[in-house]
Amino acid sequence: xxxxxxxTAPPEPRPPRARTSHRRASSATKLDLKxxxxxxxxxxxxxxxxxxxYPIAYTxxxxxxxxxxxxxxxxxxxxxxxxxxITDDPQFWNAVVNTFGMFVLSTVPQLLLALMLANALxxxxxxxxxxxxxxxxxIITSTAVVALIFSMIYAKDFGLVNWLLDSIGLDxxxxxxxxxxSWFAISTMVDWRWVGYNALIYLAAMQSISKDMYEAAALxxxxxxRQFWSIxxxxxxxxxxxxxxxxxxxxxxxxxxxxxxxxxSGGLSGGxxxxxxTITMYLLDVMNQRFRWGYAGAVALxxxxxxxxxxxxNYLLARRISSDK
Length: 325
Description:
This protein has about 325 residues and is mostly helical. The chain has 14 helices and no strands. The protein folds into two domains: about 20-65, no CATH class; about 90-325, MetI-like (MetI-like fold). It is a multi-pass membrane protein. It is found in: Cell membrane.
């Protein structure tokens, strides 16, 4: 009688290498789940540190010194630059007034026109695609080209606007010499360029509003005007706040339009008497013409604070108005 050695032999144990490799794979998976999210967001923090955090920190440091390319040594002056800027610099305050004047004249009409235009495009119209593309054209137009065209439109002797004023018996206006006239002319450039951009943002938000709300309001007898103010505007509150903050940041940093509006005369001074010199133009004038880099850093930080304050105020006002309605 023969014995079956294979049947009675005990089962062979699993090789230890398999367990070891399984443990290593499990550990690698745990490490991947633990650290991979940080690796995904690491590029953002690197870019932020290089292009945002470091420039801000360097600006803070340089604003506390008398840094200048004309001086080999750098001296720490503390808050002297800020004290001089706030208490003994009328040209800076002139730039602040000009900036806020053009900001109000450009931002308020810009957002109102964009809202009305988006509401019109949100209806059933023929050639909707054409109109939506048309309002996007100013966005892709070069700022230099826009400034050149509007400079010709507002020219004193041969401009289109003065020709229209003369045709109805009114005296021509020197759009570069008069403070308010220059504000108005520059604001129209800004409005023409950015009304379509904001209108497209509002239009995208309007199309996400449920049509059932409008149908229910129509059954209750609400007019289109009533539907707009009672349904559309409240539903657009987050979008309106967003565009208001973005317009505030852009309006207080206004630079290219007033610079090119001078048509080669005045440069960073913003006219013969600084009638349309903005804060950013004044900052570049201090840094590149007077070579006071430390003082320019103080101007930049004050501008940063003004933008933060105005953005916060606009946000709170927009929320208050929307909640009241």
